[in-house]
Amino acid sequence: MGCYTLPVFAAAAAVAALRCLTEGTCPKEITLALLRPNRCETFRIAQGACLDAQQALAITYSEPSDPLDLTRHTPIWAWVRWQDPATAPKIHIEGGFGVGRDRATGEAAIYRYARLLLTTNLLLYCPKERAIAVTILLPQGRDLAERTSNAAFGIVEGLSLLGTTALAQPLTASEQLDRYREDLAQKAAKSPILVFCIGENGLQVAQQLQIPPSLCVKTANWLGPMLVAAAQHKVQQLLLLGYHGKLIKLAGGIFHTHHHLADARQEILTAFCALAGLDPETLHQVWQAPTVEAALKFLATMAPQALPEILSHIANRIDERAITYIHAHCAAPMGRSLQVGCALFGRDRQIVAISEAGNLILTRIRLY
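Structure (tokenized):
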């Protein structure tokens, strides 16, 4: 165990709580059908008990494979209670305390795979004549969410139960970098133009921009090694597509962007604001902003005319630093012909800045 996504542990807790109700005692282990991949695995249950004849609670602890994952060892509670089958759906799933919700819709941030995993496994133990309501709770979810970029993408008050598979993708593990490199090699063999999509949000924005999936390579935090790999595979044009709060680090020469290793986003943004000639008080406010998103909102109000220039300067600087990095880490003349551009998007997944090279590359992609 120890390489699974948060929805898997939520499903294990929910099944354990349901079995408390049907069997009278809480099992110490739960075997789940994972669906993706198509196999069964067994998970430990930390605690569980019937609260009364109508409801039960069970607890698991998340064990992601990434030792730096902030959800490591976080408790996951599942509260299950009987419902009237005449008026309630067979299985109703909702998010309780610590589970994020979509700011726009108010819906719990429990996504398709998580719901499918929960429903499939709960149906195996729910009596035919019964209906249940399931509430997933993350007691540490609100505090942990403050250390993520969830709010920047519209998820507030907690963590998301997301993922498209049971298996976690350890963003700091070398094995994951190897998989990204393999994908890069395969796609570079077929196209001289590629798009590095920074995380799942990058992939979603690429889809919105109608960029062909055959050109998209998902990356995580190792942008430096991936840039070098692109040069080694003789990519000619490369577009970096990512959230501004992530890509801005490249403008400061930070090419491993995990926040545990380096996080100078406010400092970098403040430097570009200073170059744009903003006054000391405005610079101080940008410096003290809790997030890049908050700083940009402040600038949109206090320096609306300067903001586009600042963002454009950052985007073009990202290109410059990326090319410098490639040249420094590739044997000459490898990488000398690689053109790098970037496009930065905000929490609403709308593009806020495109570098000059990024515009050229994106235009060529649309004609591809």
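The chain has twelve helices and 14 strands. The mean pLDDT is 89.
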